[in-house]
Amino acid sequence: xxxxxxxxxxxxxxxxxxxxxxxxxxxxxxxxxxxxxxxxxxxxxxxxxxxxxxxxxxxxxxxxxxxxxxxxxxxxxxxxxxxxxxxxxxxxxxxxxxxxxxxxxxxxxxxxxxxxxxxxxxxxxxxxxxxxxxxxxxxxxxxxxxxxxxxxxxxxxxxxxxxxxxxxxxxxxxxxxxxxxxxxxxxxxxxxxxxxxxxx
Length: 200
Fold this sequence. Notes:
CATH superfamily: HAD superfamily/HAD-like
Mean pLDDT: 95
Low-confidence stretches: none
Structural class: alpha/beta
Distance between the termini: 30 Å
Number of helices: 9
Radius of gyration: 17 Å
Oligomer: single chain
Strand content: 15-25%
């Protein structure tokens, strides 16, 4: 990696992509009928989440366990690779990709910081040469338990994860790109914060 004193932090869902990739990944792996059946069965929890009576991380973990609990990790990882190859390209915003290229051309350090699962985002990051900090599943005996091995990478946890791998003092300029309240803490540490900058 080329040493640089400029850092660019990117959120993923809604910032680089046009849709929430967790939802799209479930549709990809289960098919739309099973997805909508699951959402109907989970609707009481989703109502509580909409009313802000249940936290983001709790709602997400319930959904994750319902759809992926018990899966073999090899199957889950392969599904993520297939998703990156077959579906993700159609969800990406051209304006976001253009900005990524600008940072790459200037040899800035690029880190994707996302609440999405590492398995369905990391293959894309590897392909374009971008570091990733993401939510990771708990795996025991090669099976997905339905829990997370890391805290949901959202809000303050985004900053915690960033600070676990670098020191802000090492950078003279920090860019950050986000689109939701889950990105506020990350945006707050940037000299160049960009909120909802990419439209297509």
